[in-house]
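Journal club prep — side note

Before the paper discussion, L.F. wants everyone to see what a predicted structure for a comparable chain looks like in token form. Sequence:
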Amino acid sequence: MRIAVTGKQGQVVSSLLERGPAAGVEIVALGRPELDLADPASIRAALTAARPDAIVSAAAYTAVDKAESEADLAFAVNAEGPGALAAVAAELGVPVVHLSTDYVFAGDKDAPYREDDPTGPVSVYGRSKLEGELRVARAQPNHAILRTAWVYSPFGANFLKTMLRLAETRDAVNVVADQWGTPTSALDIADAAIVVARRLVADPDPALRGTFHLTGSGEATWADFAEAIFAERELRTGKAVTVGRIGTADYPTPARRPANSRLSGEKLAGTYGIVLPDWRQSTRAVLDRLL
């Protein structure tokens, strides 16, 4: 089986390139200059040449704060690009697994979000990703949209690696403690995306299509995540770093973040049998590699 994935250096594409061979899947990474999500012609040419059995739409504009001043670019990459990609997928007759985000929700619900809860993004990034979902769904009914959150991995830039970098020079770090979600390993996302893509290729069941939530098991605040990272680091290095628990108001950013980014994985578990490991377990696995 051959899966084409958009992007060349992102956390999920790097994880897919690592996990694919063991799963018996050939991963073809397509990024600039061959495939540019802001250039529909390049999308068509690259996907046609790749001749995939399925497509994972992983590349995105992810600079959440910068998007507030670069809305046109964010929508071009996160909405128009995936829509064009899905249209080509429909022409080629192959399914699309599209990665989306918790930022499509307002974050004001007092329980984990389900797939049928009303959306209400509070940032340009969130609005661009929601528009991307809508365009993918319209262009290619044979799709699975996977919303995930708080992604980290051994690759690229992410919260976990930032905490490790800060720990090199600090004994204490202030971290937001009033935003809730679930840290999710890109390696776990890659494993799940491969399973979903395989099922979409092999099984026409309509229940396998649609929108699903894909995050690690359990929940945490950013401060909880940081404390877990530092605790594991201390076990390996002997150096302690304490976390100062602060509020969102104490760490202002150009873009608003959802206070509640928890996503219910019940639908994905019931439909695909996919339940990701507890976030603490996956965090330890990534730290084992980095430390």
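L.F.'s comment for the group: The chain has one domain: 2-157+184-216+262-276. Keep this in mind when we get to the figures.
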